[in-house]
Amino acid sequence: MKKAPPATLVIFGATGDLTRRLLVPAVTNLCTDGLLGKDFTILGIGRSDGDDEMLRASLDKFATEGDCWRDLRKRIAYLQGDFTADRVFDDVAKALGDRSAVFYLATPAQFFGAIVEKLAAKGLMAEAGSRFRRVAIEKPFGHDLASAKALDARILALLPESQIYRLDHFLGKETVQNILVARFANQWFEAVWNNRYIDHVQITAAETVEVGSRGSFYDATGALRDMVPNHLFQLLAMIAMEPPNSFDADAIRDEKAKVLRAIRKPTAVCAVRGQYGKGRVGSRNVPAYRKVPDVATDSRTETYVALKLEVDTWRWAGVPFYLRTGKALAARDTEIVVTFKAVPYALFRDCPIDRLPANRLIFQLQPDESIVLDMLVKKPGPVIKTAGTTLDFTYADHFKLSGRTGYETLLYDMMTGDQTLFQRAEQIEAGWAAVQPILDDWVKDKGRLESYAPGSAGPAGADALLERDGRFWHRIGQ
Ligand SMILES: NC(=O)C1=CN([C@@H]2O[C@H](COP(=O)(O)OP(=O)(O)OC[C@H]3O[C@@H](n4cnc5c(N)ncnc54)[C@H](OP(=O)(O)O)[C@@H]3O)[C@@H](O)[C@H]2O)C=CC1
Ligand SMILES: O=C1O[C@H](COP(=O)(O)O)[C@@H](O)[C@H](O)[C@H]1O
């Protein structure tokens, strides 16, 4: 891989959590991988008072220690100012001169539109010769379909799509990218990847963490908006997309957008929402969600959501996709479980076998990245008896992944101009369009919000959602 071209990463929100915990370790990893040149610099912008050394020192403990960080930290500068003031943008222009830049909006979402407008108005987005100017926009991109469309319209009135990098950090995760490789680089996948062989798909993003210090953001957002139209739909799209005709960014994004547009509008009965009460996750005491600072004491915001969705395409007709995500659950577990249809039973009718469990293919994204295929084999002995076993691939057994945040690939791609792992406007809008009927329903019908115990697998209604189809969730943490 070649080094990223010389550029400045301009981080709006450099004193925030995302910069510290995820961007800085990723930049250090890229440097250690030899993918950043000496001419890579960072210009951080925040509201807090301070100078270059204040920012560097605040990042020290989050960076991977070593020569790379020691050298890189000297190339970090800080600009104090309010994003709403013109002065900040004049100072950025002065600091950048003619350099290429990626403007990373690691800011609260209400600033996204206004910052892009100021960047454009000040001529900061103008490209010339080999000098590029790109803007990376964090999530949440909009609050619903109407606001996402409005934000897109605002930004696209000023910039071409080629300068816009809408982030979904799940796309930086190795296993997520590996879904594409597994599906399209292995012949046997495609042969069984359809409604003839697949019974249903489960997509889970379970977290043990509670809402904690993010009460103000979370209470206005909820689990559905926070995780589904973005992260979980990216996973769904990777599983359900048709083969692209190349690995070109637009070819892949076209296919993913088609899948998201094909999600049948869900009805109220296909959604379950829950909110955690008081309890324990492992040995940790967890206060009820309504006691979290900045959360309304009568809040009806969901901290858990489960959905049953259908993808109306030739390939997936009749295959349900069950999605669930929540906070304060029993285990951290992000996975995709593809359950195959049972084999015709006749062959085993004379054997002492009660039932043949279906084969499952599990893409485990977190905590440990792996791909596991459940299969049945014969138990040794004179009578035919089956035993469940697995074919496993665990990333850590073959590759070194530790300390990666997933942002490495995304940052490198922004600097090299590869938009494959970023979302185009219509993908984002298709995601919101698919969940909008549920959001509308929840506004109208205030009645259904189940409570669940911290440390559990979520509300009982989520189990019922599958049980009525004769199916069960894969156990969280298993
Ligand atoms: N944190 C995470 O794990 C993730 C975050 N994101 C997204 O990234 C974005 C940033 O999140 P996060 O870092 O957690 O947020 P924080 O609240 O921790 O940081 C916000 C940053 O914006 C700055 N800021 C806020 N208002 C102004 C203003 N008016 N003028 C100048 N600076 C201002 C803050 O400066 P100061 O602190 O100096 O006041 C701070 O640097 C959000 O859109 C979030 O949804 C996405 C995925 C994961
Ligand atoms: O975007 C978000 O993602 C995190 C989960 O990401 P992960 O990489 O840690 O699995 C989630 O906790 C957060 O609420 C959400 O805003």
Please tell me about this protein's structure:
With 478 residues, the protein is α/β, with parallel strands linked by helices. The protein has 2 domains: 131 residues, 3-Layer(aba) Sandwich (Rossmann fold), CATH 3.40.50; 276 residues, Dihydrodipicolinate Reductase, domain 2, CATH 3.30.360. 34% of the residues lie in helices and 21% in strands. The protein has 15 helices and 17 strands. Strands 16-15-14-13-7-12-11-8-17 form a 9-stranded mixed β-sheet, sandwiched between helices. The protein is globular, with a radius of gyration of 24 Å. The relative contact order is 0.14. The site of NADPH dihydro-nicotinamide-adenine-dinucleotide phosphate (NDP) has 20 residues, from helix 1. It is an enzyme of class 1 (oxidoreductase). Pfam families: G6PD_C, G6PD_N. Catalyzes the oxidation of glucose 6-phosphate to 6-phosphogluconolactone.
Short description:
With 478 residues, the protein is α/β, with parallel strands linked by helices. Helices cover 34% and strands 21% of the residues.
Secondary structure topology:
Blueprint lengths: L7 E5 L4 H16 L8 E6 L5 H9 L6 H6 L3 E5 L5 H11 L4 E5 L6 H10 L11 E5 L7 H12 L7 E3 L7 H12 L1 H6 L5 E9 L8 H5 L2 H19 L8 H13 L9 E6 L2 E3 L2 E3 L17 E7 L9 E7 L6 E8 L19 E7 L3 E9 L7 E9 H4 L8 H10 L8 H20 L5 E3 L7 H8 L11
Parallel strand pairs: 1-2, 1-4, 2-3, 4-5, 5-6, 7-12, 8-17
Antiparallel strand pairs: 7-13, 8-11, 9-10, 11-12, 13-14, 14-15, 15-16
Helix pairs in contact: 1-13, 6-14, 10-11, 10-14, 11-14
This protein binds NADPH dihydro-nicotinamide-adenine-dinucleotide phosphate and ligand LXAUTJHC.
